[in-house]
Amino acid sequence: MTLTxxxxxxxxxxxxxxxxxxxxxxxxxxxxxxxxxxxxLVGDNGAGKSTLVKMISGLYxxxxxxxxxxxxxxxxRDASDARRKGVEVVYQDLALVDEQPVYMNMFLGxxxxxxxxxxxxxxxxxxxTQTLVDSLDVRIPSARATLRDLSGGQRQxxxxxxxxxxxxxLVLMDEPTAALGVAExxxxxxxxxxxxxRGAAVLLVSHNLDQVFRLADRIAVLRRGTQVGVRSVRExxxxxxxxxxxxxx
Amino acid sequence: MTTTTVRSARPSRLGRVEWKDYVVYAGFVVxxxxxxxxxxxxxxxxxxxxNILVQAAPIMVLAVGLVFVLSAGEIxxxxxxxxxxxxxxxxxxxxxxxxxxxxxxxxxxxxxxVGLLNGIFxxxxxxxxxxxxxxxxxxxxxxxxELTDLQSVPVTDGTFISLFGAKWLGLPATVWWAALVLVxxxxxxxxxRYGAHVLAVGNNASAARVSxxxxxxxxxxxxxxxxxxxxxxxxxxxxxxxxxxxxxxEADLMTAIAAVIVGGTSLFGGKGTVVGAAVGSLLMxxxxxxxxxxxxxxxxxxxxxxxxxLIAVSISLRGKRGS
Lengths: 249, 323
Ligand SMILES: Nc1ncnc2c1ncn2[C@@H]1O[C@H](COP(=O)(O)OP(=O)(O)OP(=O)(O)O)[C@@H](O)[C@H]1O
Ligand SMILES: [Mg+2]
Description:
heterodimer, A: alpha/beta, Rossmann fold, six-stranded mixed beta sheet, four-stranded antiparallel beta sheet, 8 helices, 12 strands, globular, B: mainly alpha, ABC transporter involved in vitamin B12 uptake, BtuC, two-stranded antiparallel sheet, two-stranded antiparallel ribbon, 4 strands, about 0% strand, binds adenosine-5'-triphosphate, binds magnesium ion
């Protein structure tokens, strides 16, 4: 009836531009990530990938351009504002608290309370955490286990569960497997693929092209802050992506 | 995004008892038995045991404040001076106005002020709490000396004295106040969102920040809390001793830190226990008491106490670092 789009895209970036003083980190970046789609963001060191993720998660403010979430134009005051609007990020360096149980990490900053004294509802948090990790098939001894007793892969699994649980359809991942070994990486990749099956939109930053080709539906390439192109995985090759990243052919 | 922590699978510790977390209880029992056997008549009397509780009370109050500060990964060295300045200001206000509520509010106001000062320098200016509170320790100690020109001030107000110094159900009020602070502190640390956030900030501040926890606010809050706990300790002292002096609380900083560390709170943040700190405080008070009963001179006590604290802290810290 009107010109407004009927399908609400979880993430749409329009003409995003970011400079730090004289340094241009990201220039004219446009991208859409649809529900049930994994879009990989690749590029050399310093290409601007993390900067882009930080803008979507409210840590940096874009110098220019628009961020749309689920059909709504947003601007964030800070990271917790972005979080309230359903943006969740998984970092490579595990934004988790080691000395606390799994369930407290799952609810970090959003702990459930009960009663007039607003005491922590540990039982409910543990129960909901257990349900969640079970549904995503993340194998941990117990939701009550202390985080430091888990392996790197299990921990990243928790971080991804947490992001999925709180996300409003969109999960950002900045090199989620960079700190993991081979077997653990495989586990985490399985989990990321499962997010897609559940209809999440995933923006995945990765340096690992094998991983990108295993997981992604589309690949967006950044070179020195400029978007050099977006390719569907089915219609491109490693060679093409590598030459896009490096600028050599 | 370059700090990479590679972690391999580690055996679960679920089945393993971390005995170092229980050192304080063992230490408590050993020291208690030692004095009970070596000085049965003097140490085990009801009067003496009550006395130990009374001695432990202000230490416990200070320790509860410190548990939060250390759990958040900070330190507060100014608490000893705040004890003195709070007690003195309360005594001066009582003397000049005769109003005990005003005296109590003044003491708490001193804690609030010093705590905010510490908190703002630590959380907003981003200086290490070690340096900030070392500076305010000197500042506040100076003010305490200046306030009455090194003179002690007597406290004669009956209500004030009975509020903090009377006996209720057979135990001195100081002990009840300390117990109240312990319960509130223990519940706050273990059972509230605030406590969870304090521990998260001390464990991994950047994780806390990206999880939406207001890190600066938590840091300010723990420092305000410890300074106000010091004010409460000052009130307890001035009522019990029926007077205040700039030397009050002088030795308490070391004792309280030792009590907290021996109790199992991490010096490096992220881990704290109020119950452990309470037992640690009792242990420290018991040591003080036993050394006096053993007939050591004041200077000998200082040496003995320092040695014992070093040993106790080494035992409870060994193996906790580095991991
Ligand atoms: N806070 C900042 N202040 C100034 N310059 C910055 C800032 N953050 C990033 N930059 C610059 O912006 C550019 C893009 O950095 P960014 O971290 O986004 O790269 P990246 O693609 O994530 O690289 P890597 O693969 O190494 O993680 C770099 O030139 C970097 O130096
Ligand atoms: Mg990066």
